[in-house]
Amino acid sequence: MKKFGFLTLLMSATFLLILASPVAATGPKVTNALLPVVAAAAPPAAMPERHPHIEEALESMRAAKHHLESAEHDFGGHRAKAIAHLDRAIREAEICMSMR
Fold first, then answer.
1. Model confidence at 97: pLDDT above 70
2. What's the farthest any 2 CA atoms get from each other in the chain?
3. How far does CA 3 lie from the centroid of its chain?
4. 3 within some domain
5. What is the torsion angle, in degrees rounded to the nearest 10, for the CA atoms of residue 51, residue 57, residue 62 and residue 64?
6. Which of 4, 48, 51, 55 is the most exposed place for a label (fewest CB within 10 A)?
7. Does pLDDT of 11 surpass 50?
């Protein structure tokens, strides 16, 4: 009987593990007949998804608009422009919230 070296033995074991691993990873085949029939039941009513970051941004933009509106100086028309930009940004965020 031939003597096998350690390296030959290691390579053989590695080769067998490589061949066996895809079979073991897939597991036994399950047919659809064995699966419970859950898909036939009506899906539960979808809860509207919350968007906490957008909600927080809306609060912050509304607070910033209030601060700008209560400012005493016009800053060369830049305060009015900032308020207009905030109005548009608030409207866009409200559109995002309506797409829940």
1. yes
2. 101
3. 57
4. no
5. 170
6. 48
7. yes
Instruction: Note if the pTM is more than 0.70.
Output: no
Q: Where residue 26 falls among pLDDT bands split at 50, 70, 90?
A: low
Q: What sign for the dihedral angle of Cα 68, 70, 75, 76? A: positive
**Cα distance between the two ends of the chain:** 74
Q: For residue 57, what are the domain limits?
A: 52-98
Q: What tens digit of pLDDT does each residue of 46-71 get?
A: 555 778 999 999 999 999 999 999 99
User: How many structural domains comprise the chain?
Assistant: 1
37 domain-assigned: no
Residue position matching structure tokens 């933009």: 61
For residue 91, what are its two tokens? 């409207």
Using CA atoms, how far residue 37 sits from 12, 30, 44, in Å, is: 45, 14, 16
3-state helix, strand, coil in the chain (%, to 5): 65, 0, 35
Determine the Cα–Cα distance for residues 9 and 2; give it in Å rounded to an integer.
12
